Task: structure prediction
Amino acid sequence: MPPKSRARGKGSRGSGSGSGRGRGRGSRSKRGGRQQAVPEQSTVATDKETARLAKNDEQPETITPAAAEAEAGTDAFSIDAANALWKAAAAGSQTAEQREETIRAIMSTHIVGGGFRRETLKSLERHQYLEQYLWPSFHPLQSSDTHVMSILLMVNEKYQQRLVGSVWKSMQEACGEQASVGGLVDRVVDVSRSKVFAADAADVVGGLDALSARSVVVQFLIACFGSLETASVREACMPLVTITLWSHVEGQALVEQEFARTPALRKLWKHMNRRLGAGKHADEAEALRNRRNRDFVPELLCDFVSWLFVDRPTDALLAYGAKLLELLVAVESLLSTRRYVNLLLLDFQLPELCRRSALIGKGSGRSARQRRFAELVEQLGSRVFFQVDDITGQPLSDAEAKDRSYERLARLQKQAFRLFPAELEDMAISSIAALAEPNVLRSHLERLSRESLARLAAAVGLRTCLPQVNGSQMHGRLSSSEVLDGQDGSLLYSHTFLLDLFGERYRRRETVGDAAQATSAFPTELTLFDPVVSEADQLRRQPISAANGDGTGIGYPALALPRLGLQFLTLHDYLARSFELLQVEGAYEIREDALDAVRRLQPESDEGTTRFSGWARMALPLRHPPVITDVRAPRLGEQAPAGVRAEITLDVANYVDSVRREWDTDVRPRDTLILLAVQPRDAASGSGSGSLGITAVRGCEVECRLDGKGRPIDDAEALQAGGSTRRFRVLLDPRQYHVDAGQRGDDAYAMFNVVLRRRPQESGGRAVLEALRDLMARPQMLPDWLSATFLGYGDPAACTALHALASAGGPTRVYMGDTFVSEAHVRECYAGQYADVVFEGGRFAKPCVIEFPEEGAKGVLRVCSEPTVSRGPIELRRPRENAVCFTPAQVRAIQSASLPGLTLIVGPPGTGKTDVAVQAIANLYHAYPRQTTLLITHSNQALNQLFEKIISLDIEPRHLLRLGHGEEDLDSSERYSKAGRVESFLERRSQLLAEVQRLAESMGIKGDFGYTCDSARLFFVAHVRVRWEPYRRKHLVAPEGSGGRVVDNIAGMFPFTRFFDQSLGRPLFDQSSLPMGGDVDAVDALVDVVEGCYRYIEAMFDELADIQPFELLRSNGERSNYLLTNQARIVAMTCTHAALKRSELVRLGFRYDNVVMEEAAQVLDVETFIPLALQRAASSNLSSTPAADQGSRRLKRLIMIGDHNQLPPVIKNSGLQMYSNLDQSLFTRLVRLGVPYIELNKQARARPEIASLYRFRYSDLGDLEQRVCRGPYAAGNKGFAHTYQFVDVGDFRGKGESEPSRYFYQNLGEAEYVVAVFQYMRLVGYPANKISILTTYNGQRALIRDVLERRCGWNSFFGRPLAISTVDQYQGQQNDFVLLSLVRTRSVGHLRDLRRLTVALSRARLGLYVFGCRRVFEPCFELQDAMKRLLVNGDRLVVCPEERAGVDEADVGADAEHRVARTVEDVEDMGGLVYGMIQHLVRASDGDSMDVSESSEEEEA
Result:
């Protein structure tokens, strides 16, 4: 059995120098370091550093206008020269004419002349062509068309790289009196109407050919309508989609129907039309602008229609058509933009015209571009006819959608009978259901002539000719088509097309419920090898297409995939888009796994059968095809079986033990297995893609394992005892089986010969898809307070807890528990916010309640305390209190979490997000004893960290429950899984019953009262309460006229003294400490003691009452379910487990009131929604009682904690990430929508100067000085002159980055340098576990591991760093020292995403050393703030090799003038330094501690 291979980089063993010779004895680096004094260390950014940054900014390059003009006129116009030019323009040394000439030169020479190479646009964008040159010199009226097109090209490139958000902001900030986003959009509209739409294919507009110019304009509009959350963009684009568009609707019957349905529209229609004319008091320029905006979209559509019926569509035309459809889909996907556009598209009949266009292609001769165009047409059709009211935005139920469809058919019937009673008599008496069939309707309408059919169409509001706007001429591009009636120059529809139009417009459409039922969460060969999966994956690398092959067309790829934006039409729209994208993502992952497994299995042909000559860890050949064992009868009204079971048999005889164990332990019930039908590639044909011989794919769910006799087993040892055979009972998809059986008969599954398993952490995708499918079929309504904001509409602040506090009609009381540690802490947190802070009773006490005044800041804040009661002797019931002194921002977050509504908490690195979450949960637990809180995180590690802190608070363990895998990793002696909690309840039952028996004996009562919970309850009622009540009335309540309460009687007559004496191991009442005389306070304290003792006893029996159901329920399953639904008040799980168990939780009737979500910015949008829908839907029965309403409307609070400035969820298919925004989290979406959030503003992780590297990403991030300005934070780093540095590595031996395989980036120079610094730190004395090595690419991580093995593996002295990881994988972790390799030397790469940069710079506490290529990263616009700060300390590593860590830990900066530093010139110099230190250490230890023997062979990196 071959061993598992590892991807490794190249490297050489030794001290870190670039050459193996560098380790030879006596060799020294030729570049000696300079000796210099180190400037005084500082742990904060000094004024000198700030001045140095400012000085650098004040010295831009200058270039004379003459030199710029000469350079611009040459053919060898370089990007570097362009960079110098726009710096010169910024300095004012270029005239407007010279700038326009430069722009035309760049367009003609580099963009158009270079064939629209993506690399050119990327380079221009990276050198800030837009920000530094195009936009500052733009004037809406004076700039040339080439200038406008250049701006659009740069905006489009930034949109493609997902950087357009920062562009709008920078453009708005740089706006002058004329230049604005609105001015740019106005100019685009003018240029498009006057030149672009009027140009034919061979014309040139702004330096671009006509189709390229159209593509650029449309892509710009896509960017605009995808950024409507930006106010300036929204103000510029919304006038293009107002109700005035209906002026171009020919079928006025459609308009009248909308006016009848929504009468207020008619008033709006009249008002908007008045703004189009130049009346007596109207502004002519404004009216002209309004008319131009009104006509723009219709003219765009008419221009597009004119291209639909050309004889031979080119690739450039197909690319433009795809982009326009993408734009229309984007517009139709937002309520605010589709409201009036949808009626225009219906009137223009765009989906129907596109389906009959030559661009869509026919049959097997359809090209990939035509197929993509056809898919986009279908996507547009589904958007146009989506189940939503366009005007009100209300979703239409399946019944309402059918009613509207039937109403339209009824109107058609009436009009047909009115106009043609004789010809259409049969149609008038036909059923509505029959007319909904296109063939039936067509058979009736065929009796009419073309003129009669056109008359009927006009009566019901259907256009009968191609659309035209302002007399536009389009017939010059039209060829003969079945759409037109065939007369020369005629734009009238043909008889055939009108018949098809009626059939398509009035056909029965699939409802959203029907569509949900038809979907499957299991993959097939069609989904795995769907071209869109490959196209999405290739999107990241696809260049701008020179669509005609000769550089005459330009466009970014368009995919027939939905996008996740900020807004959605309805909840079903949200779920359907998410389902489709997750299905593609899952198909991509499974396809990659399947192809890799088949490649390893090496299928070969063997006399008509398939034989496998290789092996794969994740896939095994089946011993025989799956055997169908049970097909259940269909449910009433369905055709597919209710369930299908099968058995699959594997043979693991030829596999090593590790592979056997994985198949035995990693394949568990509810896991997904993939069945593959594999043939040798030369024999594969037909079905599916046939890639690598895979001809069919089906999914199944594991139900159980089977032994040799077919009996279910769940014991790995019993499984292994059965020999090499492994049998599984699996559940097949009933609907897919029904289709397969209909096509292939009983042998439908005889072709499958391989089974593929997936890793446990990758198996949650199907559960999410199934949860979404169930939610689409059975709508799950969100609570009213959250619904509008969730879909992206309404006031973003309306659903927040802060809004609830501000809009409260009176004083608001908020339970804060033990959040505050002292009176001074309270005053500090509310200082300056209210007129005064008053403490009830004149003192601070816990638990406290804050009463916020109705007057707001002018009122008085009152701090009250909840009445507390003794819970028994302090030794027995000691409460655990919070000891964290929260910052004011943290207190605001905890306070908001206690209020009903939505709370968003942004937690920058090291600001205590987890502590805030834990305290908020504790407050909810104590403030609302009858409410349940659901705790959700993305990872098991984060969930355990949070849960461990909750355990340490004053929360009853019996109310805690941890679901899912990972519970065994909790650092606790208690078990918090369902099984563990049940076991704990039963153990606790035994303990409490023993206590009851001891109580009975201490009271002198004979009997077996500790036998059951019921006997204990009877004992409490019959004996305990009977003795307590007379005692309480006689001795604790002083009757009027009596002499008061007698101390001796209180202590002496207490009926349970003996029980507590035994429990405490001492007398409960010490006679010497009993109060004497009439000390009332002392007597009250004694009464509190005895009442507390009784409460302790009472709590015992209350707890037994809670445990009693576990005594009555006999099966562990019933006990576990009861625990979940009735006992647990804080339930913790990951979002994946929530999806896996959703159906089960809903079936059990699980209920919860609050959801607290940690790591919310790392959870996919839809995976955040699923935990909100784990309850039954709210009852629609008006007579239902509140108790029966157990749906998601019960949800009262949603608390989301995360950081949208750090990395988003991980998506493997880069196309889905870049094109469809699948990596969007709900947390980030809500922030972008403008929902108010609370940002924690005091970090306690990193040195202040390290925190300053990423401080610019947050509004007010400060330092918790008592944590980060003391101890090790106050001292410098021994052995280093600076606590952080950027080290410019450059090209190592003339070579920078390399790419051995796709996306597998490596940089040998940086790897050698990083490892050498690690060796240096170990030699200086830093522990290996205090050092982490991070990089931005997996390829570099593999290379660093290899180099580390070669350099350090020869001696155990060096050890291994705590982590060698990528930045993405290290999110959520930190270490004292971080060595970061940036890898790239040709381009910035994905570090340009500021979220990744934030994570990379915030992992270090004490020291951060970044290794990269300065010339690449310094000019990057997005990285400038961080790079300026990083380069304050220079770009050469400065070390102090004479210092030692752990020795004389006093502040290094105190004697900085005596430190001797050395500047390291390059990696070879660092290698020489490390080698010398090794030699010195060997000589000092006489060679005993280290083995530095030479290797006989020469090693090279």
Notes: The chain has a mean pLDDT of 84. Residues 1080-1112 form the longest helix (33 residues). The longest strand covers residues 619-631.
